């Protein structure tokens, strides 16, 4: 099992082009690949309920099978367990999958019920960034999540730590946010696909300061995919709860709540404020 440590960021429509022009990427040549992914689960969503994701990915003429387990994090930063290996196809490698501890824990019968559930198709631009012993893969994903006749756009940035201190991820995110309209995102493509398939989003509970931040970020993810103003209001309320309960982050939380009164709230200033809040509240919560 590998451990995946990444910072996930959602971009405003102007974000991709602003990212490509950012000084931090000057002199770095991106590599572009097309990724087609099919996600599998049982008809009753057993893997989703256990916060696992299973996919087959077509990438550069190879077929890769990946199992990801539930993560820990908040405000865009996450740590997950991950198993990935190349398979012959065209379907799942059930034999090796059966030997993985998270699948074994689900009990007998699960493998026979696995079915394709939804798909993602996106172009990935990758820059390799290194400095002072730190190596980070910067991946810009542009495409769609598709389920039946419905789809939502993918426009996100993933900063994955390959070597060094995880703190470097948020430092790089803050540097990019100086010119790129972006915000933390706590919802994986798999969780977004499951919500699209089900036709509904469930928001996590608040409580602790990191939990309120997580609720706000997931509500913003839901609003981006559905356009439902109720989710933007839920994010506002979560930030107001933070402001009222935690004096040390009150100015930042109230600034974000006020920004969410406006349709064009996502800009470089609010993105930087959200990242500063993420840095101030580093404690992890369970992620989907």
TrEMBL record:
Domain CYTH: 2-200
Domain of life of the native organism: Bacteria
SUPFAM superfamilies associated with the record: CYTH-like phosphatases
UniProt xrefs under Gene3D superfamilies: Hypothetical Protein Pfu-838710-001
InterPro entries: CYTH-like_dom_sf (IPR033469), CYTH_domain (IPR023577), YgiF (IPR039013)
Classification via PANTHER family: INORGANIC TRIPHOSPHATASE (PTHR39569)
Protein name: Adenylate cyclase
